[in-house]
Specification:
Shape: globular
CATH architecture of the largest domain: Sandwich
Number of domains: 2
Number of strands: 10
Order of helices and strands: HEEEEEEEEEHEHHHHHHHHHH
Largest sheet: 6 strands, antiparallel
Distance between the termini: 32 Å
Strand order of the largest sheet: 1-2-9-4-7-10
Structural class: alpha+beta
CATH superfamily of the largest domain: Jelly Rolls
Number of helices: 12
């Protein structure tokens, strides 16, 4: 296997454990993703090349040295800014983890999707370190505290917000997580939370970055991804995760991840098959020192 063979195929290395922060490292030679939206913060760093993406109607360019901070549920895409391709690491941080630190404040918003602020650079360091360094639970918890406080400090305090009922929103979130097998409605969430449904829906969006409906859909997609990585067929995984059929799941998957599920799975398999191991892949790819 030579440098040319490895670098011509897009690949993704993924580290995801239940209840923990999902991390990836990826390389793309050109087009990466169609426009899509996550319900997590996307916190990342470009390791080599130029990582270009449309965000809030503007074409932006991530390069080694700055920090990518994409807000939950904001539409964005991804592509190489030059013919050399780009490599990056990204962590997908559940807003509920940030709220464990903030305790019910509106989610901090970092304008523009890119930052050169040293506070964010340092606070994100643990999440974008080498993928062969797994985060233990205490290290991750410390890093989440640092990230949440840095986001709040850089974003500043929001103005003009009505008081939020964090406890009610959290009761609704916990109900969803325990009942994904049900056809969840706002009426059910109203009963579970003790909060009037429209006020609950408003607070949920501010606190967790997305609507209750989108939150339910993306948790089912999380389950679907776990199933196909375990070898389930797309149709069986879609039904087991709570979707009506495969086409229903595929529409939601593509809107969330920017590629259809077959392509998403192929990128992970390419890295495993061609690299043999993560360490061998890194030795063959161009690398920009991300120390600062």
């Amino acid at each position: 296997m030579d440098r040319t063979e490895l670098s011509t195929a897009d690949w993704v290395v993924r580290d995801a454990q239940a209840g923990r922060v999902e991390r990836i490292e990826a390389w793309f030679g050109g087009h990466g993703y169609d426009p899509h939206r996550h319900d997590t913060y996307s916190i990342g760093r470009t390791l080599s090349g130029v990582q270009s993406f449309h965000y809030k109607g503007v074409l932006r360019h991530g390069m080694p040295g700055n920090t990518l901070i994409l807000h939950p549920d904001e539409l964005h895409d991804g592509m190489a800014g030059t013919e050399a391709g780009f490599r990056y690491r990204m962590a997908y941080v559940d807003p509920a983890l940030i709220q464990q630190v903030l305790g019910g404040e509106p989610l901090p918003y970092i304008a523009g999707g890119l930052s050169n602020d040293l506070r964010l650079y340092r606070a994100s360091e643990s999440f974008v370190q080498a993928m062969d360094h797994p985060l233990d639970a205490l290290e991750e918890q410390d890093a989440l505290f640092d990230l949440a406080t840095a986001l709040r400090a850089v974003a500043g305090k929001p103005r003009g917000r009505k008081r939020l009922d964090y406890r009610a929103a959290e009761r609704a979130r916990e109900f969803i997580m325990s009942n994904l097998h049900l056809g969840i409605t706002l009426e059910m969430l109203e009963r579970a939370s003790g909060r009037e449904r429209w006020s609950l829906s408003r607070d949920f969006r501010v606190l967790y970055g997305t609507s209750p409906y989108r939150f339910v859909t993306l948790r089912r997609l999380d389950h679907f991804r776990a199933l196909i990585l375990d070898g389930f067929t797309l149709v069986d995984a879609a039904l087991a995760a709570g979707f009506h059929d495969q086409s229903h799941m595929t529409r939601h998957f593509t809107r969330c991840y920017g590629v259809p599920p077959s392509r998403w799975l192929e990128r992970i398999r390419v890295q495993r098959q061609r690299a043999g191991s993560y360490k061998n892949a890194l030795e063959l790819l161009p690398y920009a020192d991300d120390s600062r």
